[in-house]
Design goal:
four-stranded antiparallel sheet; 10 strands; two-stranded parallel ribbon; about 260 residues
């Protein structure tokens, strides 16, 4: 079930984060419990291991008939559950099925496609400061906007006068409902003015982060070796799928991915 048979010679402390999570799940099921409590089981694991852990959870529910109570901060994982309780510092904000949470957001979620003359960050900053806007996030070039009420006029009023930005409705998800439940002061994206594009674009100057010869090992297994990269102010760097070829004749790339 955990696909760890290939690594039985590797001790637990020499395994990756995803392997450790799957190993812990397997150990907790040795006695076939009636109820399994999972606290943030997918934090710090790669997407593949995260998907595999969810396969294990579904197997427990459907084939072995074990009840599962899951605490998670990943809202897409909460959307998979049969029933969800939203907590804020120990206080229950709401409870119900994910589908019920979706229904409360019908007509309140929109995609705002910026015009050619306006960047998405400028639109995001303007909408996030709007009085009836719950949330505004950039998604694939457009701004996903969640409103306090199903009133598109509130959204149009927050946009620049005469702007040709297009607005289209979106199907809500659990994250939209979560944002609507959360006190606005706790998560508001406060930006003064509409100059966010210019501020983020300032990526010149000396690097603020310099990494040389970064190596990560799990015992005698080398996960990454001799990685070099620099990050300037305003840049976002992400390492995706880094790996170190075993053998002296080959070297890994100096950087994996930057965006």
């Amino acid at each position: 079930m955990t696909d760890l048979e290939r690594f039985t010679e590797r001790r637990a402390e020499k395994r990756s984060g995803g392997m450790k999570q799957k190993l812990g799940s397997a150990c907790s099921m040795l006695e076939q419990p009636e109820l399994l409590l999972l606290g943030e089981p997918t934090v710090g694991v790669d997407p593949v291991s995260r998907r595999e852990l969810w396969t294990i959870v579904y197997d427990l529910l459907e084939r072995q008939r074990i009840g599962v109570v899951l605490a998670t901060s990943y809202l897409d994982e909460a959307d998979r559950c049969s029933r969800v309780m939203v907590l804020d510092r120990g206080r229950k904000l709401d409870e119900g099925t994910p589908r019920a949470f979706h229904r409360t957001m019908r007509g309140r979620v929109f995609a705002v496609q910026p015009a050619d003359t306006v960047g998405p960050r400028t639109i995001q900053a303007r909408l996030a400061n709007g009085p009836r806007v719950v949330d505004a996030t950039i998604r694939s070039g457009h701004v996903r906007c969640v409103l306090q009420r199903p009133e598109e006029a509130d959204l149009a009023a927050a946009l620049p006068p005469g702007d040709t930005t297009s607005i289209s409705p979106l199907e809500p998800n659990f994250e939209d409902a979560f944002r609507a439940l959360w006190p606005r002061a706790e998560h508001a994206f406060a930006v003064q003015g509409a100059s966010a594009d210019a501020a983020v674009a300032q990526t010149d100057g000396d690097p603020v982060v310099c990494v040389q010869k970064l190596t990560k090992r799990f015992g005698d297994f080398t996960a990454v070796a001799d990685i070099h990269f620099k990050v300037r102010r305003g840049e976002v760097l992400e390492l995706l799928g880094c790996w170190a070829p075993m053998g002296p004749a080959r070297r890994p790339p100096s950087a994996c991915s930057a965006g």
